Amino acid sequence: MKPFKEKLVESGRWPLRACGVETLQVNVGKRCNQTCRHCHVGAGPARTESMNAETAGRVLEVLRRHDIPHLDLTGGAPELNPNFDELVRQARALGRRVTVRSNLTVFDLEGRDYLPEFLCAQGVEVVASLPCYLEQNVDAQRGQGVYTRCIRALQRLNRLGYGKPATGLKLSLVFNPLGPSLPPPQPQLEEAYRAQLADRFGIVFNQLYTITNMPINRFLEALTGDQGHARYMELLLQNFNPATVDNLMCRTLVNVGWEGTLYDCDFNQMLNMAIGPGAPGRLRDFDVPALSRREIRTGRHCFGCTAGSGSSCTGALTEAARQALQPA
Predict the structure, then answer these.
(1) Which residue has the higher pLDDT, 221 or 288?
(2) What is the pTM of this model?
């Protein structure tokens, strides 16, 4: 299989460099109340990695010192970190846009039932995992009974105003394929989600993100048993789309690990690929000019972000790429 770098060279896009820091993505830990089959983090109830108050304070200090418009909180279930509420409050007080990547079922946990109202009061954008609009597929990927709990959580968010344009409370849903395949075209799938969720449950949302499963941690384990890893990697390689490269999220994002190490993206974090030489490697040394021109570390997993319509934390990467996959 060709290295990712070779494909970038062939398409005239090497070296891959950052072009700014618009998003500070903070992974506050690997603890989660679920154990999803597609999880690239390998998160679950038994994980103990968790960002402490000192490191959370350094995140806020970076936001005070630098004009980074977007704080993206992820995990695990980020809401389970004891510093989550303070990160949200302080970042919003600084005027930052704040996004939380939620599994929705965390709202059911004892001591966390206040979360929807808290997120609403703070104007936090919710990016919610719902890998299908069908119960059987969601429960197969995320656990028995998860679908029903997610539907209940989405209805609760809707009652607070989430997903309704006039409120400004943004609710996005995330689709992941059930197995080793590429996501279908995002616009058509979004239409299907809207029709199914509205007709059956009265649920509305702002947009759908389609995200390719990354061959890392738990999803990788599911692939390797029957030589599925090689076939999946070949699928990603054969669908490499150079039109996605310019909009890769790593070009405008810096990812922060739970203990303060800096990465080009959350996927690199899970592979212990810290930001390369020549740029700050720790949160305490954060420097926007240096990070804005850094060379990005790549590997074979990067084919997951550049296959087909492309994949990122905000779904398909370019309209041109999306249109390329749409049937004639």
Answers:
(1) 288
(2) 0.94
